[in-house]
């Protein structure tokens, strides 16, 4: 189970699971090497205070890319799938909108690295449980019914 602030990429066949609310998970997959990895972040941007933690989307996505390249994946082959970013906790004015900001940073960082997003299930108001098969690149998504 990949927890918030977590990264996972191994040069092995794996199934990675996580549960998302306003958090976002980026799954990277290299169809040529048949390898993948996932991050799970809580907040969009690290502002420079403290350590650059993967609990922030801009750090987590770049670190996941580094892990994929360390496994000899080719950046030009990588594909992304993004999930989460729900508005699970609505406030009166929807001022924080953390879920949408998490989605936006995933899209921005992936575009900066020329990694296409080939699938996504983002936004809405319900949480999601993911199972990512790193060998096949497939993701099973189950949304909560509440």
What does this structure look like?
The chain is α+β, with helices and mostly antiparallel strands and 146 residues long. The chain has helices at 57-70, 98-112; strands at 6-9, 15-20, 24-30, 35-40, 79-84, 117-122, 128-133, 139-143. A hairpin with a 4-residue loop joins strand 3 (24-30) and strand 4 (35-40). Helix 1 (57-70) runs parallel beside helix 2. The model has no long low-confidence stretch (mean pLDDT 94).
Brief overview, please?
The protein has helices at 57-70, 98-112, and strands at 6-9, 15-20, 24-30, 35-40, 79-84, 117-122, 128-133, 139-143. It has 146 residues and is of the alpha+beta class.
Question: What's the arrangement of secondary structure elements?
Answer:
Elements: E1 6-9, E2 15-20, E3 24-30, E4 35-40, H1 57-70, E5 79-84, H2 98-112, E6 117-122, E7 128-133, E8 139-143
Parallel strand pairs: 5-6
Antiparallel strand pairs: 1-4, 2-7, 3-4, 3-5, 7-8
Keywords:
8 strands; globular; 60s Ribosomal Protein L30, Chain: A
| CATH architecture term | 2-Layer Sandwich
User: What radius of gyration results from the CA coordinates?
Assistant: 14 Å
The overall average pLDDT, rounded, is 94
CATH class: Alpha Beta
Outline, from the CA principal axes? globular
Percent range for β-strand residues? 25-35%
């Amino acid at each position: 189970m990949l927890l918030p602030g977590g990264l996972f990429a191994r040069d092995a066949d794996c199934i990675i699971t996580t549960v998302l609310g306003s958090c976002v998970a980026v799954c990277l997959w290299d169809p040529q090497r048949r390898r993948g990895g996932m991050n799970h972040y809580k907040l969009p941007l690290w502002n420079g205070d403290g350590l650059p933690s993967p609990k922030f989307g801009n750090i987590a996505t770049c670190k996941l890319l580094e892990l994929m390249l360390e496994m000899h994946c080719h950046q030009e082959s990588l594909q992304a799938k993004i999930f989460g970013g729900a508005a699970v906790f609505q406030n009166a004015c929807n001022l924080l909108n953390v879920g949408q900001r998490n989605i936006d940073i995933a899209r921005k960082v992936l575009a900066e690295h020329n990694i296409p997003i080939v699938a996504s299930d983002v936004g809405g108001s319900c949480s999601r449980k993911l199972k990512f098969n790193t060998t096949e690149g497939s993701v099973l998504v189950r949304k909560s019914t509440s």
